[in-house]
Amino acid sequence: MIKTFTQDDVIRYVYEETSPEDNLLIEDALMSEPDLMTFFLEALELRALMNKIERQPRKNTVQTILNYSKHHPANPPARLRQT
Description:
Elements: H1 7-14, H2 20-32, H3 34-51, H4 59-71
Helix pairs in contact: 1-3, 2-3
């Protein structure tokens, strides 16, 4: 039986979410299907680019969280806890 692989399978392979057995089959498919290999190379490049993205919250957001935590104790008194 010949198994065909989809782009979803290739993405799982790129993110190392496939079994060792599937890895071998996917690698064979990549070698024999140029379109799948092209998609694989693009997915690898996209993953590398996405790993370089750095995001930081706005200072206003951080300040809001700090203000909230300053005015709300982590462990409220037992009389204020809901049971």
